[in-house]
Amino acid sequence: MRASHHEPAGPSERAKDIAARVEAFVRDVIVPYERDPRCGSHGPSEDLVHEMRAKARAAGVLTPHILAGGDHLTQVETAYVLRHSGLSPLGPVAVNTAAPDEGNMYLLGKVGSDAQKERFLKQLVEGRARSAFFMTEPATDGGAGSDPSMMKTVCRLDGNHWVINGKKTFITGAEGAKVGIVMAKSDDGACMFLVDLPDPAIRIDRVLNTIDSSMPGGHAEITIDNLRVPADQMLGNSGEGFKYAQIRLSPARLSHCMRWLGACTRANEIATDYACRREAFGRLLVDHEGVGFMLAENLIDLKQAELMIDWCASILDSGSLGTAESSMAKVAVSEALMRIADRCVQVMGGMGVSGDTIVEQVFREVRAFRIYDGPTEVHKWSLAKKIKRDWKNARPV
């Protein structure tokens, strides 16, 4: 496979400096907010988001992966920085590296016009607004989920406006968002539109109660009823929405891996500290083989996840889209992080299932991550199809 020829580069000095400042800020300033009552079942409140971002802005670590002038760090550098931002579940929100904003900023930077960047992207980069990506649709209506080609939301041109109708679900951060990217299907195929939020034509029917709780606004069910969008707010060209989705989703899957690697690193720190302090049956927990071996396995999985992320990031930096590689990384890393989070809970016993540390939250978040941005099984199926295509194109054995 072509990817095997790319060796991941280590983080640059620039990335190390940024990551060090981000880590210090997250550990010293943001970790204490983890017990803030404004952290609810649907994520941190808007008031808390603004408060944390104001402190990140003052510390010079807001949106650290996008440099002055709009240039992005490389994917390898971004991997290093986002991993450190994820050391608290609140870290990515505070420093503006969280989903869906990070992926939406990346997409707008790649596809948006100058006018669209000035109007929509600038406020996201400055951390003054949050965004939402309206793609997933209700399964009960037979809409697009893991298979975007099943999209039911439609758009039609009416003069110099597009009119959009449909339903969406699991729209992360829709409640409280100021910028929306809406996917709909025209006669040409899938399209994307930039919209100002809130808009009376985009109705939040309910915010779902889900296993995770780190993302502001939670995940909403949406009805879009005759939404009128000026033609110049179409992102790119009509019919090319799926292509733009891949531009966004391949790096975004990897960014999820980066952030949750940071969270699992911290969970493992907490579990290790507990095991090295707590005694049972006459000795420290860590000295019991069953516990010590779990922590050893965590170190192995953490390192393998880190290497997989860096390898995939190097593919993206090489100019390849890296769809297959991002699928491999999503599967390998999400499954490894689930094992790590599960072992951390097990090592800590009753403490591991309580809210006294972030370990139980990390377990919940990573369990959801195995589904979000494509379930493990969908990515394996995609890879299996690639294996078959490659076999057909290969010379006979």
TrEMBL record:
Its cofactor is FAD. One of its GO terms (cellular component) is cytoplasm. Residues 239-386 form the Acyl-CoA dehydrogenase/oxidase C-terminal domain. InterPro entries: Acyl-CoA_dehydrogenase, Acyl-CoA_Oxase/DH_mid-dom, Acyl-CoA_Oxase/DH_mid-dom_sf, AcylCo_DH-like_C, AcylCo_DH/oxidase_C, AcylCoA_DH/ox_N, AcylCoA_DH/ox_N_sf, AcylCoA_DH/oxidase_NM_dom_sf. Homodimer. GO terms for molecular function: acyl-CoA dehydrogenase activity; flavin adenine dinucleotide binding. Pfam families: Acyl-CoA_dh_1, Acyl-CoA_dh_M, Acyl-CoA_dh_N. GO terms for biological process: fatty acid beta-oxidation using acyl-CoA dehydrogenase. Residues 13-127 form the Acyl-CoA dehydrogenase/oxidase N-terminal domain. This is Acyl-CoA dehydrogenase. Keywords: FAD, Flavoprotein, Oxidoreductase. It comes from Phreatobacter aquaticus. Residues 134-210 form the Acyl-CoA oxidase/dehydrogenase middle domain. Belongs to the acyl-CoA dehydrogenase family.
